[in-house]
Amino acid sequence: LEMCDQLTLFRLMAKQVAKEVGLFVTFMPKPYTGAWGSGAHFNMSIEDLETGSNLFRDKDDARGRGWSKLAYGFVAGILRHAPALAAICTPTVNSYKRLAPRLADGSVSWAPVWAAYGDNNRSCMLRLPRNRPAVENRAVDSAANPYLAGAFLLAAGLEGMAEQLDPGEPVEDMTY
User: Fold this and answer.
1) What does the pLDDT look like over 62-116, one tens digit per residue?
2) Is 19 exposed, middle or buried (0-12, 13-18, 19+ CB in 10 A)?
3) CA 171 – CA 121 distance, rounded (Å)
4) Residue 34 dihedral angles phi and psi, to the nearest 5°
């Protein structure tokens, strides 16, 4: 919630400062067809309230990647609900214009096109980064309401944890 508050304050502040100097600020996900889009990646993790330890890491990961069964369940829950979550995390027409595999010039857009997860794979919707114990959702964009996106992503992830869902093996290939 604190991060959502900070993002909301930043958006309001940026728009007001721009207005005062005669400029305009937009947080539109894809303002120009030929340009890069604007994502608002969500990085989520779960901590033990008593110890403060992150519950997404496990050195004994059967897949050998260092992630816990809870992390995999969290990922699987979000993937299960990915089509419905798209309405909240990518809420506008311009949101969907951002989710194209290639830019107008044919170069890779780096936008997540498929509901998939990967081990440090930046082409997937969900990425398990090697440098931090978090699930990174790359599909969320700048038009999303951060409070709604955060609440629904958390609910989907917690459902996956509670049901001990398994997302399968991570995607290693480029999904473009």
Assistant:
1) 998 999 999 999 999 999 999 999 999 999 999 999 998 888 888 888 889 899 9
2) exposed
3) 8
4) -85, 0
Q: Report the distance separating Cα 112 and Cα 150, nearest Å.
A: 18
Question: Hey, CA dihedral for 56, 57, 61, 65, is it positive or negative?
Answer: positive
Cα angle 143, 137, 146 (rounded to 5 degrees) comes to 35
pLDDT digits over 152-174, tens only? 999 999 999 999 999 999 999 98
Euclidean distance between CA atoms 173 and 176, whole angstroms:
9
Sheet of 126-128, strands arranged across: 42-44, 135-137, 126-128, 117-119
Q: Tell me which amino acid residue 14 is.
A: A
Residue 54: helix, strand or coil by DSSP?
Answer: strand
Nearest to 174 by CA among 133, 128, 114, 129: 114
The rounded distance, in Å, linking the Cα atoms of 159 and 135 is: 15
**How much is the pTM?**
0.91
Between CA 10 and CA 48 the distance in angstroms is: 30
Yes or no: say if 42 and 137 are a contact pair by the CB < 8 Å rule.
yes
The tokens of 92 are what?
A: 């506008």
